[in-house]
Amino acid sequence: MSNLADVVTHQHIVDFATDGVVCLRQVINPDWIDTLRTGIERNIADPSDRGRVWNRDEQGRVTFYDSQVWRDIPEYRDFVEHSPMAEIAGRIMDVDAVNFFFDAIFTRSTGSQFRTPFHQDEPYWSVDGFDTCSAWMPLVPVEKRSALEFVKGSHRWGHRYAQTNFGALTGDERDQVTYEQVDDGELMPLPDIEGNRADYEILSWDMEPGDVAIFNARMIHGGSGLLREDRDLKVFNTQWLGDDVRICFRPEGMDPDHSQVMTEHGLAPGDRVGGPLYPELWRREPVSV
């Protein structure tokens, strides 16, 4: 791969800051894609206790999710620690240092129509900060109609939206968390993006393995699904944290809730993330003077 300082251009950085998302083309080489394909098959065959079937339709088509397994699946760990993804995230966010947060996989059977509801990520997390990003990376070709969609500029709307219980999608009793929203006057219902699509500029792309859509974790996003009968979808997703992010245990609920494991590792609200669970994997070199 070329020098990442050249691959991630000034225009990419500007677009990420203003639009909230950029699609980088062919920045992950085929060897890494093959590695992750091996890992995802291992993951599907032996899910973690966080593995969930989000949707199973009448035809038996399945949408599967698992997360936070990078320390158990060697292919995932290799990618997290040694691929260029940490540096790409750091340069796109234009920060001084990047810590890894967690991994997630999403798979959909051929022909699956299930679409993920529009939502934000960071308001669910056990951290707070603007310098965040998620890297959505398909391991198979995906058409624009079936790719993740992003509401342009929504990361800068400045609203704190009430959370939706995504656990309700699974029907699994382990997931039935009722988010007790704090009555502080700041929480707003998420706009009905799907019902008013013409009112928003919604971004998505045809994507190939090696492409990555990187988006701020406060972006409103959703979709995927709507697959043709001869297409499936396998996505490896990683979450990255930059300079201003601090631990935050949210009284209204968190998903995934890292509060217990963070506390066990001596991390407290207000701390910067770190340690073996959230390693710093890239730091910008000081400018010579």
Q: Tell me the structural class.
A: alpha+beta
The number of helical elements comes to 6
The SSE string, one letter per element, is HHEHEEHHEEEEEEEEEEEEHE
Task: Give the averaged pLDDT, no decimals.
Answer: 90
Euclidean distance between termini CA atoms: 28 Å
Query: Per the principal axes of the C-alpha atoms, what is the gross shape?
Result: globular
Question: Which stretches are poorly predicted, pLDDT < 50 over at least 5 residues?
Answer: none
How is this structure best described in words?
With 289 residues, the chain is α+β, with helices and mostly antiparallel strands. The chain contains six helices and 16 strands. The strands form four sheets. Strands 1, 2, 3, 4, 7, 12, 14 and 16 form an eight-stranded antiparallel sheet that branches. Strand 2 (52-56) and strand 3 form a beta hairpin. Helix 3 (30-45) packs antiparallel against helix 4 (74-82). It is globular, with a radius of gyration of 18 Å.
